[in-house]
Hints:
- With about 190 residues, the chain is α+β, with helices and mostly antiparallel strands.
- The chain has one domain (about 1-190).
- It has helices at about 1-15, 40-45, 100-120, 165-170, 185-190; strands spanning about 25, 30, 60-65, 80-85, 90-100, 125-130, 140-150, 155-160, 175-180.
- It has a 7-stranded antiparallel beta sheet.
- A hairpin with a 2-residue loop joins strand 7 (about 140-150) and strand 8 (about 155-160).
- Helix 1 runs parallel beside helix 3 (about 100-120).
- The longest helix is centred in the middle third of the chain and has 18 residues, at about 100-120.
- Mean pLDDT is about 90; it is low at about 5-15.
Amino acid sequence: MKIFYLFIFLIFNSKVFANDITKFAVEDFQIGSKITDYFSLKFIASNKLDNYFDTFDDKNKFMVIAITEKKYIRDWDQMEIYFKSSDYRIHAITAGNFYKNINQCYKDMEDYENIIFSSYPSSIKSGPLTTKHYADPSNLSIYKHTDYHLDNGTIGVHCYDWSSDMTNRLNWNDNLQLQVRSNELNDYIGYTD
């Protein structure tokens, strides 16, 4: 059902925003809008992920909040919203769902890829690529990812297949992530494809 809603949204809106990431929305959250349009400063402070960018030179340039409450998100198990500290403008949205069956994750990933590419046919597609995940010292965890490069940002669909050791030790579960990022945030985190 989630994929159907995304498909309907993109089909009816794709002609309006072509390759403009600032018009893309996940749930009700839109790149370029202000996080304070959705949440109070108190909510933002209580849901902020501390130390998220501590290894960066300008560690306070962006902030991230995590959302798991169903009253704020309907179709996802969790979301992270990245916004600029100086003006509260949203620069990235990561929406995720957890899976017990990684094959279902791959099927849903393919469905999202088809919807995104049909809605943004002039985007530049990279992937799908399968990569060992750097966080797993055993090299048994992998993620499959496809990114669509638009004029001013990226839409990515990723499936993370964690090893049983990572799941048992850290409680990291297999998941699908829909990632929408502005070029400014991509530059900040050093994203290159």
